[in-house]
Amino acid sequence: MSRDHSRRFAAVAKQVDKNRVYGVREAIELLKGLSNTKFDETIEFAARLGVDPRKSDENVRGTITLPHGTGRQVRVAVFAKAEHAAAALEAGAETVGDDDLIAKIDEGWSDFDVLVAHVDMMRAVGRLGKKLGPRMPNKKAGTVTEDVGETVRQIKAGKVQYRVDRQSNVHVPIGKVSFETDKLVENFAALFGAILAAKPSASKGVYVRHVHLSSTMGPGVRIDVQDARSVAG
């Protein structure tokens, strides 16, 4: 971290009260007002869940298409052949291939944000499991599919994946600081509502422990969980 960045961050962080929780709309407006970078920062959602990700029946994972997208240009690579490959390209995928794409990734290529695979390709793609880890196409995440074209279109339109990590956290972008506040609130509501609906039946006690919003270069703002639930409906 550069000295200039450290000073800027410290100055911005002073404007966030660490001893209080904020309403969703209030937090979004605060982050928008604090942003003073030369680029359009991303607003990031983060939550700590009361689940044990080591237990398969407490895993939280799914997808949601945000009403207003994320504002990000998502690079999609697709494992597909013949007419399925053509459909992926027509839908806007940046990279499409079969054995050649598998070999390329196996050699270290990673110039993509999301990987999608036609179901017929998964036997061959399976050998990349250790190399790709959580980036591996997955049926639960909707990235292993019969209709790669439609899946690519949904991803380009703002479909995002949420999944709990090893520390029981979920991190998902919900838009840009340039978005209107109402659109960011609606994206937040869609995502948080999906996470609430995905509560595992095996989960006991408090499900959502903490929620924060932050911008790319800004501090985290703690959100009132009850207000977040109210916004999600």
How would you characterize this protein structure?
With 233 residues, the chain is an alpha/beta fold. The protein folds into two domains: 19-70 and 159-232, Ribosomal protein L1/L10, rRNA-binding domain (Ribulose 1,5 Bisphosphate Carboxylase/Oxygenase); 76-156, Rossmann fold (3-Layer(aba) Sandwich), CATH 3.40.50. It is 36% helix and 21% strand. It is built from nine helices and ten strands. The protein has helices at residues 3-13, 24-34, 82-91, 99-106, 122-125, 129-132, 148-157, 181-197, 225-232, and strands at 42-49, 61-65, 76-79, 95-97, 114-118, 144-145, 159-163, 169-176, 208-215, 221-222. The strands form three sheets. The chain has a four-stranded antiparallel β-sheet, with helices on one face. The protein has a four-stranded parallel β-sheet with strand order 4-3-5-6, with helices on both faces. α3 links the parallel β3 (76-79) and β4. α8 (181-197) crosses α9. The N and C termini lie far apart (39 Å). The mean pLDDT is 92.
Summarize the structure.
This protein has 233 residues and is an alpha/beta fold. It has nine helices and ten strands.
List the keywords:
233 residues; alpha/beta; Ribulose 1,5 Bisphosphate Carboxylase/Oxygenase; Rossmann fold; 2 domains; four-stranded antiparallel β-sheet; four-stranded parallel β-sheet; 10 strands; 21% strand; globular
| Assigned CATH superfamily of the largest domain | Ribosomal protein L1/L10, rRNA-binding domain
- How much of the residues is beta strand, in percent? 15-25%
First-residue to last-residue Cα separation: 39 Å
Largest sheet: 4 strands, antiparallel
Elements, N to C (H/E): HHEEEHEHEHHEHEEHEEH
Poorly predicted runs of 5 or more residues: none
The 3D shape can be described as: globular
Tally of individual domains: 2
Average pLDDT, rounded to a whole number, is 92
CATH architecture of the largest domain: 2-Layer Sandwich
Total DSSP E strands: 10
Which strand order does the major sheet show?
Answer: 8-1-9-10
**Share of residues in helices:** 25-40%
The Cα radius of gyration reads 19 Å
In DSSP terms (H or I, runs of 4 or more residues), the helix count works out at 9
Structural class: alpha/beta
